[in-house]
Amino acid sequence: MQDTTKKSFLLYLDYAEHLDQLTDAECGQLLRAIFAHEDPERPEPTYLRGAAAMAYSFIKAQLDRDREEYEKKCETNRKNGLKGGRPPKPKESQETERFFEKPKKPDTDTDNDTDTDNDTDTETIKTLSPPAAVDAPKKDLQAERFDEFWKIYPRKVGKAAALKSWKKIKPTAELFEKILTAVEAAKNSQQWQKDGGQFIPHPATWLNQGRWDDELTPAGTVATSKPAAGRKVDTMGVLERIYREEDAADDSERNGAGPGGNFLGLP
Predict the structure, then answer these.
(1) pLDDT tens-digit profile of 194-247?
(2) What is the pTM of this model?
C-alpha cells in the first residue's frame, strides 16, 4: 500500500500580514503549534492565547484542507496504479488532423510515467489554492484592540482622533493589557469622578500623553492635611486659647449657669 505520510506542508505569504501583529514570542509559540498539529504523534496544542490563538485557528483550517486534498490525490494515484497506470491518451484520427492550421509536432513523449511519491507531491502542490478570503479576520488586530479600548473608555468624544493616536502607538499585547487596566483604575479615581466626570481627558489626549502611567487617587480616600512648607505652628497660641476657654467655663459655673447651661439657670 502506498505511503501517504506527508513530509512537508505549506505556509502562504498571505499569513505575513497577520503575523506582523504578533510579538516574537507569540510567533514562536504559533510555529511550534503548527508543527505539533501536523505531527500525528504529538497532541494538539492548547497553550495559545489571544491573537496567537486566532491566527492559529485559520492557519490550522487551511492545513487541514491541504491535507485532505493531498490524501485524495494519493488515493486517485493508488487506484490508477492498480489499473496499470494512467489511461492512454486518445489517438486523433487522420481526418481530424486535416483541419489543423499548422502541422502538429511529432510526439516524442514515451508513456513510461510511473506513479511515485515525488510525482504525487509535485502534482499536489500545483492543485493547492491559497486560503479562501472568508478565512481571514474581517478586522486587523489593532482595530479590534481599539474597539475594546473604546468600549470601556467613559468619555466617548473624538473617536477618529483617538483611532489615529492608537494606530500611531501600535500597542503590543503587553501594553494593550496595561492600557485597559489603567482605564478601569482611572474610572474609580477621584479625578475622573469629580463633578460628574468633568475632568476626564479626551481619549486622543489620554493616548498621546501616555496617561496610562498616571498615579491617581482612588475615590473615597480621605486626604490628610499637612502644614504648609516653612510655616511653623503657634503652639503657645493654641495653649493660651485652651486656657481661656477653660477659665470661661469655670466663671460660668461660679455665676450659677451650671455646666452646659445658661446664666439664668433655665433649662
Answers:
(1) 888 888 999 999 999 999 999 888 877 765 555 555 555 566 665 567 657 666
(2) 0.35
Residue 21 identity:
Q
Gyration radius from the chain CA atoms: 40
Tell me the C-alpha distance between 58 and 55, whole Å: 6
Question: Running DSSP on this structure, what letter comes out for residue 250?
Answer: H
Which three three-digit cell numbers place residue 194? Answer: 469629580
Query: Cell 486518445, residue?
Result: 90
Same domain as 146, residue 75: no
Please state the length of the chain. 267
In whole angstroms, give the CA distance from residue 69 to residue 178: 44
Distance of alpha carbon 55 from alpha carbon 25, whole angstroms: 14
How many structural domains are present in the chain? Answer: 2
Here the cell at position 220 is 473615597
| Structural domain harbouring 128 | 13-85+118-135
What is the SS3 assignment for 218?
strand
Last residue of a domain, one of 180, 197, 213: 213
For 108-135, the pLDDT digits (tens) are 655 555 555 554 554 555 556 666 655 5
